[in-house]
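Q: Second attempt. The first request was missing the SMILES, so the protein and flavin-adenine dinucleotide are both included now.
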Amino acid sequence: MDTVLLLTHSDGAGQAPVPALEALGAARRLAPSPIAAVFGASTGPAAATLGAAGAARVLVAEDPALDVPRYATDTAAAAALVKASGATVVIAPATSRMMRIAAGLASRLGGRIDTHVTAVDTEGGPAVTRWYYRQRIEARLRRNERPWFVLVDPGALTPAAPSGTAAPVERVPVALPGSRTEVRGERSPASGEQTIKPDARILFVAGAGWTKKQADGKPHADLAETLVRGFLKVSGASLGSSKSLVDQSGEGQKVFAFMSHLNQVGQTGATPRHPKGLATCCHGEEPHVVGWRFIRERRAVNLDPGCGWARGKADVLYVADAFAVMERVNALLAKG
Ligand SMILES: Cc1cc2nc3c(=O)[nH]c(=O)nc-3n(C[C@H](O)[C@H](O)[C@H](O)COP(=O)(O)OP(=O)(O)OC[C@H]3O[C@@H](n4cnc5c(N)ncnc54)[C@H](O)[C@@H]3O)c2cc1C
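A: Got both inputs this time. The predicted holo structure:
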């Protein structure tokens, strides 16, 4: 019989990140009341939430040094928590902070690890569904080695709902190693604006058409930037891009300052998970649309009725000028 642990860090406010509740939902498929463990500078709110969402007890490791993600300190805290729990199966959310330490942690504790897991179940023992080869091959597997670390992809599972009463909280002492790494601040890639939001309900994709010559024979990149930013602001959407648009920076053409290659969706980009997606000024070619495989409801705005979206890639294609459409959409959304 396995001992199941949900392992997570807290966020800056001491809360459990949403993907941690999704991972707890996965852990509860293996054990109705798993142990939870959380590390961070403060963990109180996270421990209360995880307890109320079904954890039998919550182990916490708190230290001011855990305020920032750092491999040496995070790994030491996580290892202490896993050891204290006696866990044989460790389920963790695939946040960037956990992704950074999880492989090293598994190695340190003599375990095995699987990433990109999208389903967890019992099948005569714990079994997971995971993706390989940039999400082209799906496999279902079990492992005999323990401890088994399982990183659950955010957005794939329903979060556990905090509806019960709080569980007992136990503090685990951790001897954090001295560190030569000092975090002095954060710098965002472009304008400091966070445009990639995995939790957003909508993915808004901008294609290269936004910077191309329009009906009057001229490009209107500044207006395009205003419209795209305006939509992101009023809708809270996550911003995706086609490869052509983000590649333009390398060719010295006008680019959106708030966009980088991290926004690229597709075969050589990301495969985000949002309930809905809206593509604008993007042709909908296969290498791009392959990144939409987890977007459940797809719409596109394109001047070209023969574009890729029209060929079964979108649920609805609006054959229209995206400049006009987004101006109107933004005005309507601004009115509330
Ligand atoms: C190996 C390989 C990997 C690739 N990987 C990726 C990938 O990961 N992601 C990716 O995106 N691409 C990828 N590509 C490139 C992909 O094939 C396309 O070239 C790219 O997606 C095209 O980008 P686009 O649709 O923005 O630009 P374009 O093809 O230039 O299309 C612009 C569109 O904007 C429309 N438009 C212009 N003005 C307006 C307007 N006012 N209103 C409405 N519509 C308008 C036009 O009708 C046109 O359809 C890859 C290609 C290869 C060969």
